[in-house]
Every structure is written in structure tokens, then in C-alpha cells.
Amino acid sequence: MDLNTMRTILRRDLKDEDAANYRWSDDELDRHIAHAVREFSEALPLPAKAIMPTTSGSRVIDISSLTDRVMVEAVEYPVGKFPPQYQRFALWGHMLTLFGEEVPDGSNCNVYYAILHTLDAEGSTISTKHEDLVATGACGYAAVEWAIYAVNRVNVGGTVTPGEFLSWGGEKLRYFKTELKRLGRRNRVRTRQLYRQ
Question: Do residue 30 and residue 127 come from a single domain?
Fold first, then answer.
């Protein structure tokens, strides 16, 4: 799925398909989609692995080059061992400090981390089974935003319309956040606790 397809799904769900009289501009929907993708990424980030250099005699590794990082899961050092040797570590800003017995000698380490998902004109890193969930969150944000905008404005739906949008959007967001909590990384067994560090 790409951004244009997601936008089309949102317009269908929001009953905003009259191209001559859109309620939401593309930019507004893109902002709500980006908001939902970011929240989804915090709960179910995209796994990534980076080979990072160490500095001889230093336990500190600069990971500032790992852009869009949500979290660091594990650090393997030294690499190439079986079973893999994972180090205890602390993270402060972009500096990762290893607490293992072995002091780095300048060789590389493997950093297993997670990043934000992307959803743009070229495609998406969000799995197909979660696309509807992201659309639900974006719909919720769009509806709530429109309800706030519509307060004290004349509209053909009458004075109850903003409240109905707010209620509908709130229900969508409650479902979205409940599902993120249920599926999220904080609710999963962390396998790093099952191996010796």
C-alpha cells in the first residue's frame, strides 16, 4: 500500500469522496496518517540491524547514525560467536554504553534496534494485516480534528454534527489505541531475558 491508496481508504471511510467538495485536504489527511503511523511504530516498530564500529578501550558506542530509531533491543559483541554474545547496555541519548566483561577492541558490533515505519508515495513497511488498523487511527484523528473545527460553524447537518463526529472519531481512536496496546512490544515476551548476557 502507498500513501495515495491509504488516503483513498480514509476518504471512503470518512464519506469524503466528492472530489469537487472535499472536507479534508490531502495535506490534512496526510498529517493524520503520519500521526497514526508514528503511534503504530511506537507500539510495533520495524526491526533493523546495524553493524557499528567500536573504539578500542572504550565501552561507549555512538549510534546517532541510526535514524528514526524507536528503541535498541540488543547489542552483540564480539560478533561471530555461537551462541551469539549479547552485552548488557545502557542508552543515554545517542550514546550506548556496554557493561559486559569484554572491553571493545575496535572491532564491529551488531546493534539490533527498531525504527519508525514508512508510508509514502513509493510504498509502506506496514504489514498488510495492520493497514486497516492504521487507517482506523487516521480516521479517528481526522474526525476529531473536523469536530473541533466545526464547533460554532454553520453546517447543513445541524448543531449535532460536530458532536457526532467527535463521538465517532473518539470510538475509532479508542479501538486504535486498545489494539496498539494489545499488539505492542511492551506486551510481548522479551526473548533477550531468555539467554545469558
Answer: yes
CA–chain centroid gap for 155, Å, is: 35
Q: Which single residue is written with the C-alpha cell 487511527?
A: 137
DSSP 41-85: HHHSPEEEEEEEE--TT--EEE-TTSTTEEEEEEEE-STT-SS--
CB of 6 within 8 A of CB of 118? no
The mean pLDDT value of the chain amounts to: 88
Identify whether residues 39 and 135 lie together within a single domain. yes
Q: Which helix (H) or strand (E) holds 90?
A: strand 89-92
Tell me the whole-structure pTM to 2 decimals.
Answer: 0.82
Burial annotation 4-21 (CB, 10 A radius, 16+ → b, else e): eebbebbbebbebeeeee
Structural domain includes residue 124 = yes
Q: How far, in Å, CA of 110 to CA of 106, rounded? A: 13
Contacts of 129 (CB under 8 A, 6+ apart): none
Average pLDDT over residues 106-126: 96
Domain boundaries, position 76: 46-115
